[in-house]
């Protein structure tokens, strides 16, 4: 029996060996196929469309970063960002670019529609995507770092300028070279402030596609092999793309208006003026309520924007000068100084070396001049009111004229006078005597007694 079991085991050995060999062969072939095969293109044909329209600021950056992350979590086939911007804040620009570079889902940037531009910070964002495209009749570039005041460029130290330019060009080269674009030509937009038409950008290998419509752009992208930021190749599969446009939420639209430099400055001034009116005229309530709301919104925007401390100090100095102008007769010298100080403070208030984004000169003048007039007039009214005669209570009797009904002074302890239709006890200074029927003027009010003097004494 033992021999029979042994013979069966010997018979099964070739079968087991053949099975093991087959399993190993299949596993080896599968591993080799996985190693050699290119990345599988996304099967999802959903195209998430995002929009940059206007200045690039923190709320816009939050919107784009959130939606790109959402597209990644949904495994969308493509993220399409249309661009029409004059530029914006350096910090917000870098947040957007970092999100694009990290995105597992391919990102396409598209200067659209015709007549749009991707200037300054928009140029950096355009070149950061997997595919860059432009519409006919659009432009890009002009990304030279600058600092502007009221829309006019300001000369800065040459060393500081070189530092800013070198930092910007190095950042631009760091990702354009990995996108198979022309880093040398792209750098001229920073160093020489060069701008490019759609044709020049295409010929200079700054963008890959020029087309007039989004539908044609998606058609050209279908089946196109792109190089990702990590160097891997990916073939886009968009046979029947479903475009899903995602805009800002209502909250983001509201907040994006608040962080605009002009709006922020107006809110700041309205807030300060409202609280000032409430403090100088207690009980009005409305100015204090609206001023507090405006000031809180301005503080929120201040948290989001790159605020220059020198600008805030100049605005505070201007407010002090307006108050002093109302208090001292300087013939407008302090008032004019306050206007100049506040205008300069407004122009210096927002600072970003990548763009001239800041409070415009005309907005500053339109806000500062009325603010100065209102503050000076209100302060003068407050100071003048301190010299006004009190018109209520017992104090209103001071200076009033009355008639003596009982003699006042001398041997009489106290007389009486008739003032304001009322009979009051009256007293005079030592050694004085006023007979009945004489007319007197009230000098002081002491409790229920009036100190009077003869009307003829003035």
Number of strands: 20
CATH architecture of the largest domain: Alpha-Beta Complex
Which value, in Å, is the CA radius of gyration? 40 Å
Strand order of the largest sheet: 10-5-3-2-1-13
What percentage of residues falls in helices of 4 or more residues? 40-55%
Overview of this structure, please?
By secondary structure, this protein is α/β, with parallel strands linked by helices. It folds into three domains: 46-250, Alpha-Beta Complex (2-enoyl-CoA Hydratase, Chain A, domain 1), CATH 3.90.226; 260-385, no CATH class; 394-457, Nucleic acid-binding proteins (OB fold (Dihydrolipoamide Acetyltransferase, E2P)). It contains 14 helices and 20 strands. It has helices spanning 2-36, 58-73, 90-102, 121-128, 158-176, 183-191, 198-203, 214-221, 250-258, 261-280, 286-304, 309-327, 333-348, 361-385, and strands at residues 46-53, 78-84, 107-111, 117-119, 131-134, 139-141, 148-149, 152-153, 195-197, 209-210, 225-227, 233-235, 242-245, 401-406, 408-409, 415-419, 422-427, 433-434, 439-446, 449-454. A six-stranded parallel β-sheet has the order 10-5-3-2-1-13. Strand 19 (439-446) and strand 20 form a beta hairpin. The radius of gyration is 40 Å and the shape is elongated. 36% of the residues are buried. The model is unreliable at 1-13 and 30-42 (pLDDT under 50).
Task: Explain the layout of strands and helices.
Layout: H1 2-36, E1 46-53, H2 58-73, E2 78-84, H3 90-102, E3 107-111, E4 117-119, H4 121-128, E5 131-134, E6 139-141, E7 148-149, E8 152-153, H5 158-176, H6 183-191, E9 195-197, H7 198-203, E10 209-210, H8 214-221, E11 225-227, E12 233-235, E13 242-245, H9 250-258, H10 261-280, H11 286-304, H12 309-327, H13 333-348, H14 361-385, E14 401-406, E15 408-409, E16 415-419, E17 422-427, E18 433-434, E19 439-446, E20 449-454
Parallel strand pairs: 1-2, 1-13, 2-3, 3-5, 4-6, 5-10, 17-20
Antiparallel strand pairs: 6-9, 7-8, 11-12, 14-16, 14-19, 15-18, 16-17, 19-20
Helix pairs in contact: 2-3, 2-9, 3-4, 5-6, 10-11, 10-14, 12-13, 12-14, 13-14
């Amino acid at each position: 029996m033992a021999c029979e079991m042994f013979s069966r085991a010997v018979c099964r050995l070739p079968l087991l060996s053949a099975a093991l060999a087959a399993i190993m062969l299949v596993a080896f072939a599968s591993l080799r196929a996985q190693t050699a095969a290119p990345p599988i293109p996304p099967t999802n044909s959903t195209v998430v469309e995002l929009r940059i329209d206007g200045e690039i600021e923190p709320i816009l950056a939050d919107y784009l970063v959130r939606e790109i992350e959402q597209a990644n979590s949904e495994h969308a086939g493509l993220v399409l960002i249309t661009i029409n911007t004059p530029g914006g804040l350096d910090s917000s620009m870098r947040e957007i670019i970092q999100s694009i570079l990290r995105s597992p889902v391919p990102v396409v940037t598209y200067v659209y529609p015709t007549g749009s531009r991707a200037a300054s910070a928009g140029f950096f964002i355009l070149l950061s995507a997997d595919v860059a495209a432009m519409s006919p009749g659009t432009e890009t570039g002009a990304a030279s770092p600058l600092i502007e005041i009221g829309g006019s460029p300001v000369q800065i130290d040459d060393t500081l300028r070189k530092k800013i330019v070198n930092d910007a060009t190095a950042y631009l080269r760091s990702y354009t070279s990995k996108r198979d674009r022309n880093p040398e030509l792209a750098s001229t937009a920073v160093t020489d402030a060069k701008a490019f038409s759609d044709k020049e950008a295409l010929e200079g290998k700054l963008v890959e596609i020029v087309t007039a419509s989004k539908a044609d752009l998606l058609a050209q992208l279908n089946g196109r092999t792109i190089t990702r930021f990590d160097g891997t190749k990916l073939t886009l599969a968009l046979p029947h793309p479903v475009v899903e446009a995602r805009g800002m939420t209502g909250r983001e639209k509201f907040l994006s208006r608040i962080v605009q430099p002009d709006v922020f400055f107006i809110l700041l001034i309205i807030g300060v003026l409202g609280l000032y009116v409430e403090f100088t005229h207690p009980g009005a309530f409305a100015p204090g309520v609206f001023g507090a709301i405006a000031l809180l919104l301005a503080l929120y925007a201040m948290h989001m924007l790159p605020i220059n401390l020198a600008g805030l100090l100049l605005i505070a100095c201007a407010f002090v000068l307006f108050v002093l102008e109302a208090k001292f007769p300087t013939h407008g010298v302090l008032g004019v100084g306050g206007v100049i100080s506040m205008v300069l403070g407004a122009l210096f208030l927002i600072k970003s070396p990548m763009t001239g984004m800041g409070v415009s000169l005309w907005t500053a003048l339109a806000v500062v001049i009325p603010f100065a007039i209102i503050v000076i007039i209100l302060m003068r009214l407050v100071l003048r009111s301190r010299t006004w005669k009190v018109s209520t209570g017992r104090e209103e009797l001071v200076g009033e004229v009355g008639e003596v009904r009982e003699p006042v002074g001398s041997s009489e302890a106290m007389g009486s006078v008739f003032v304001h239709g009322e009979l009051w006890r009256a007293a005079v200074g030592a050694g004085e005597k006023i007979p009945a029927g004489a007319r007197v003027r009230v000098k002081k009010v002491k409790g229920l007694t009036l100190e009077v003097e003869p009307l003829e004494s003035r």
